[in-house]
Amino acid sequence: MNRRSFHRATEAERRQDLIAATLDCIAETGLQGATVRQIAMRAGVTGGLIRHYFAGKDEMVQAAYRETMTGMTSIAIGAAEAAGGSAKNRFRSFIVANLTPPVTDSRTLSLWGAFISQIRVDPEFAAIHRENYQAFIAALEMLIGAFLKEEGRIETADDCRRHAIAINGLVDGLWLEASLAGDMFAESELPGIALGSIESILDLPAGTLSDSRINGKENI
């Protein structure tokens, strides 16, 4: 008879499990309802074990916020890398990934809504927000610079940064729309609107970005 092999979780895996349990509790009950006791029960551990990994609830929630934000950015960057091919294709894939599942997701929106109120009152939350904002902008700057170079335009670093900030604002707004009421829009509608608007921001001819297929379907 074959025996199922026993896997002893590593320190990193245990910590990740606790972060996942924290996110589940916050998504279901909000920040106030997500107590250390509830998180321990969800993770199937004791409160004492939690204290081995985190100084307290605040540190757990901060780690959960960082996990949420880095996860969203990583998905978009991964989509751009997986797209390969031209700089245009990588740039488009990054934008589309930010406006389609799993980045647009009601659970993620609930988590973001719970966390965002802490940025003004918790310095550590503010630092995490700045860290992830800068990482997202930096990724956009690189993609924009490479794409415009491919189009025969050489932009300064300052120009790419301004473009990235403007496009980030556009994407943020459409991400909220998609996460709050995604059923009101056709599958490729919001990504298509984003790509068309980015053409205006970058002063590109209509159709430069928005004439291609999104997720295997024509962008209309």
In short:
By secondary structure, this protein is mostly helical.
Calculate the mean pLDDT score and round it: 90
Number of helices: 9
- Helix amount: over 70%
- Give the uncertain stretches in residue-range form: 1-7, 215-220
Task: Tell me the Rg in angstroms.
Answer: 20 Å
Q: Strand-and-helix sequence, N→C?
A: HHHHHHHHHEE
Portion of residues in beta strands equals under 5%
Q: Tell me about the biggest sheet?
A: 2 strands, antiparallel
Q: Would you kindly provide a written description of the structure presented here, covering whatever features stand out?
A:
This protein is an all-alpha fold. Helix content is 70%, strand content 2%. It has 9 helices and 2 strands, in the order αααααααααββ. The chain has helices at 11-33, 36-43, 47-53, 57-83, 87-98, 106-116, 123-150, 157-181, 189-201, and strands spanning 213-214, 217-218. Strand 1 (213-214) and strand 2 form a beta hairpin. It is elongated, with a radius of gyration of 20 Å. The termini are far apart. The model is unreliable at 1-7 and 215-220 (pLDDT under 50).
